[in-house]
Amino acid sequence: MPIPADWPTSEAEALAEQERLRALVEPYGPGPAEGDLVAGVDVAYDDERDLVVAAAVLLDHTTLRVVEEATAVGRIAFPYIPGLLAFRELPAVLDALAALTRTPDLVVCDGYGLAHPRRLGLASHLGVLTGLRTYGVAKTPFTFTSTAPGSERGSWAPLMDVPAGEGGEPGPGEGRAEEVVGRAVRTRTGVKPVFVSVGHRIGLDEATASTLHLARDYRQPETTRRADSLCRRALTDLQRASA
DNA sequence: GCGACAG
DNA sequence: ATCTTGTCGC
């Protein structure tokens, strides 16, 4: 599928679109239920040929069994600009999700949701566009900060957005308060944490519990691992086919 | 202006 | 994201 005709073309348009969508995010809701289908999505790029391959892998959230897989190929829709990642990745991701024969009850993204400069990371953006329940799991702190969670699997610490220029005590009426935007979660004992944030229609406690369930054997959720390997394999296959 | 910066 | 070998450890 081609990139949507109304997809933002400039940074200014993208910022305006985020401003419009941010009001529609619902940062609360239940976690997955017994037998729910969870989708993992991820993308791989070939900047040389301006190609992007997205993968969507459906798992049974309870058993972690793979139920279905789908991929989609497209043109890169937007340059990589921190804070505007969704505009680069989502067109292909939407196509991959559409290629599934079943609708996921939850989508786990590789990146952030509410933990975003304007509170609309790709997970939240995807949730608002599709109405699906979503959350994000990122591998690095981006611009946020947290204290180190305990070293045991299951430990976590709040992920904070610290307003710029806040060194001392912000007197009454001065500055903006620090805001909890997610959690640094230790999914494996002794291994660096991942960063969980709400996307849409799910709460932070629920997203954290789901992450720990999906990341029982590895640092990253099984959904992300499966989607990551699938899209890279698909990209490699595609590259070798055209050569 | 400069540096930092999800993937 | 992607470019890239071997190596230490469970």
What would you note in describing this structure?
- The structure is a single chain.
- 27% of the residues lie in helices and 25% in strands.
- It is an alpha+beta fold and 243 residues long.
- The protein has one domain (31-164, 179-241): archaeoglobus fulgidus dsm 4304 fold (2-Layer Sandwich).
- 44% of the residues are buried.
- Strands 3-2-1-4-5-8-7-6 form an 8-stranded mixed beta sheet, sandwiched between helices.
- The two termini are 23 Å apart.
- Helix 2 crosses helix 3 (122-130).
- It has helices at residues 11-21, 85-98, 122-130, 204-214, 222-241, and strands spanning 37-46, 51-60, 66-75, 106-110, 134-138, 156-161, 179-185, 194-200.
- The chain binds 2 DNA strands through strand 1 and helix 2.
Strand elements, count: 8
Please tell me what the overall shape is: globular
Task: Write down the CATH class.
Answer: Alpha Beta
In CATH, the architecture is 2-Layer Sandwich
Uncertain regions spanning at least 5 consecutive residues: none
Helix content: 25-40%
CATH superfamily: archaeoglobus fulgidus dsm 4304 superfamily
Q: What is the succession of H and E elements?
A: HEEEHEHEEEEHH
End-to-end distance, in Å? Answer: 23 Å
SS summary, helix count? 5
Radius of gyration: 18 Å
> How are the strands ordered across the major sheet?
3-2-1-4-5-8-7-6
Q: Do you know the CATH topology?
A: archaeoglobus fulgidus dsm 4304 fold
